[in-house]
Structures are given as C-alpha cells and as structure tokens.
Amino acid sequence: MNADALLDRLIEALRCLPGVGPKSARRIAFHLLERDRAGGIHLAEVLAESMVRIKRCSRCRTLTEREVCALCTNPERDDGLLCIVEQPSDILAIEQATDYRGRYFVLGGRLSPLDGVGPEELGLDLLARRLHDEPIAELILAISPTVEGSATAHFIGERAAAQGIRVTRLAQGVPLGTELEYLDGGTLALAFSTRCTL
Amino acid sequence: MNADALLDRLIEALRCLPGVGPKSARRIAFHLLERDRAGGIHLAEVLAESMVRIKRCSRCRTLTEREVCALCTNPERDDGLLCIVEQPSDILAIEQATDYRGRYFVLGGRLSPLDGVGPEELGLDLLARRLHDEPIAELILAISPTVEGSATAHFIGERAAAQGIRVTRLAQGVPLGTELEYLDGGTLALAFSTRCTL
Ligand SMILES: [Zn+2]
Ligand SMILES: [Zn+2]
C-alpha cells in the first residue's frame, strides 16, 4: 500500500505502545509528523534515555534512574511503615489518593509457581532483610485481592507476623459509588458477611 | 508526588501523543519500562529518524523520506488521473478502500483566510503547474464536504475546469450501514434531493 519505508517503520514501531493497533499507530504518526515534530523529537530523546537509564531501586524495587529512589531517601517518610505493592504504578496511585507517609516495597508481580514466579522473582529475600534490619512496626499489604494476589499476601504476611510485625491489608468490600446490582456476587457476599455497625 | 525526574520527564514527553492524558502516559511509560524495553528503544530510534528525515514529496506534498514519493514514481500508476486530498492519511484510506490507480496531490489543509491558509499554503501554485504540464484528464476532488472543504474544492475545481479538465468529487449521501434516524438533517435532505432511480 504505502511504499514509504521509513513512515511504515514509524507506524510499525508505534505499535509497541499498549492498546495501539494499526489505525491508531497511523494516526499518531501523522499527528507527530504534521503537527508536533518538536514533541516527537523530544519524546524520542527522553524515551531512549529512559529505556537505558531507568532501573529498579535497590531498596524498594520501584522504577528509578537512581541507585536508591526519591521515596526511599526522603528523610520525612516514616521508616516504621512499609507498604507492599505489586507494581510501581500502585505507588503513584496510593500517593495520589491517600496521605500515607511511610515507605514502599514493589514485588513486581504475584507468586505464580506455574509461570516461574517464586519468592526470588518478587525480591522476597530483599524484603526479608529489610524486615529484619529496619524498625518496621507495620507491614501494609496493598496487593490486589485476586487468587494469586491473596496467596502472595498470605505468604508475605505470615513470615512478617512470625517476626512480631503487625501485618494489615486493604479493606475489602463494595467500592464507593457502585450500585449493588452491578457488583460481583463474591464481593457482595464478602461485604455482607463483614458488615459493620453504622 | 513522584520525585523521579527521568520517569516524570518520560510521562510528560508521552503526552505529545494524540489523546494521551496524564493517566495513559503513566500507563504507557510503565508498560514500556516493565515489559517492552526493546520496543521502546526501537521506537525512540525510528521516531528520531522520522521526525528529521520525513518531509513533503516535491510532486504531491505527501509525507515521505524521499525527494519524490513512491506513489509519484510508481510507473504503473495512471498519469491521467489526479486525486486531491486534504491529508496524507487520506491517501492511505483511499488506497485501502478503493482500486484507484491514479496519482495524488495533498493540500495539507483547507482554504481558511482567517487562519492565514491561502492558496500558497495549500501548494496550489504547484498544483496549477502540474495541471498545466501533465496529461491530466480527470481531477478527483476527495475533500471533506465541510464548509471550508467545499469552498476549497470549488476554488480548485473552477480553475481546473477552466483549463478543460474534467473535475469530479466524491458522491455525497447516506453512509452505508447508517440508520436514517441517526443521520444529520443536512445529509438526509441532500440525499433526498439527489435521490436516484433504483
Ligand atoms: Zn526505592
Ligand atoms: Zn509524491
């Protein structure tokens, strides 16, 4: 169809972006070429630098260009609180939605032996060292309540509790603004059985 | 919130992509960093090269890395047919949907004096030269039937017709698969008044 090799390569390369199919890749390519070359050049530079320089923080495993990330080195955060999340993006979500001021630890996934994801892949040896070395009073398990997530939370929580650390997890129940008739049965049953006094 | 400068810069830079707000920029950044570094590096390279090397074809004004594009140099295309489109992406749409085998000319916009878009900005001097120098039998105006688009088509069509060139435009009417009750009144009125025998 279009025999212009470089334009074709650009459209193809844009498909590494999540959710971008052939049509949106084409739309993005034309947008950048016709309306925002400066933005495209800037993106290319920052993208190249990011892909090479951003690694995992050696303390919390979140994504960072530094050896230790800004959250880990921030002296104003509470060393007594450690919040376990699955993904770096969960940190941003918690930072934006809550007033949590403790530290974080990023698993980078969930225990899934069949997929080859064991304690080592999730950095649980590093976590164990932190639980041993640091004055952590409470471990908050902010892990998705899926089957694998719950198993992962249970695995981590048991080990921490054995060391005398207080272990908590996010409350489960009906999300705010959700109509009961659209809620899945499992969540409804759980929320019903864990109902509290008004 | 997130004090990691390079990650912030990546998320910000991704917002030059059309339709990408802060949330999707963040999602794209994490996707590339965690799951597709190779794709991200490749995109950065092709993007940088494209933004610098892709220009307008000197004959048809479409986007290309060459002085003259592949469609213009293809010896199998019919020199007697010239299709006028607004944007390079319109060429791809016509190539995919039709069996048109003529040449193209890209305006890059519509006449809009108030926005400073006159005949010069649309390359109409180049088009006039082509209409004069080349054996063009039919000029097809594949321009959106908007107010400015129609004015632009009229402007171009009159000049070509004055040179004895046959000028056609895309048929206007009810789009295939459209329910009449959802069609705008203007299109319905037009389709009604230009109805044809079955
Ligand atoms: Zn860190
Ligand atoms: Zn061309």
TrEMBL record, chains A, B:
List the C4-type ZnF regions, as residue ranges: 57-72
Q: Does the keyword Mitochondrion apply?
A: no
PANTHER family the record matches: RECOMBINATION PROTEIN RECR
The UniProt entry, under PROSITE patterns, shows: RECR, TOPRIM
Q: A GO molecular function for this record?
A: DNA binding
| Stored SMART domains | TOPRIM (SM00493)
Q: CDD domains in the record, alphabetically?
A: TOPRIM_recR (cd01025)
Query: What are the Toprim domain coordinates in residue numbering?
Result: 80-175
Protein name, entry field: Recombination protein RecR
Q: Record keywords: DNA damage included?
A: yes
The UniProt function text for this chain reads: May play a role in DNA repair. It seems to be involved in an RecBC-independent recombinational process of DNA repair. It may act with RecF and RecO.
Q: Write out the similarity annotation.
A: Belongs to the RecR family.
The cross-references to InterPro entries, in alphabetical order and at most eight, read: DNA_Rcmb_RecR, Rcmb_RecR, Rcmb_RecR_Znf, TOPRIM_dom, TOPRIM_RecR
Q: Which SUPFAM superfamilies match?
A: Recombination protein RecR
Organism the protein comes from: Caldichromatium japonicum
Q: Which GO terms describe its biological process?
A: DNA recombination; DNA repair
Q: Which UniProt keywords apply?
A: DNA damage, DNA recombination, DNA repair, Metal-binding, Zinc, Zinc-finger
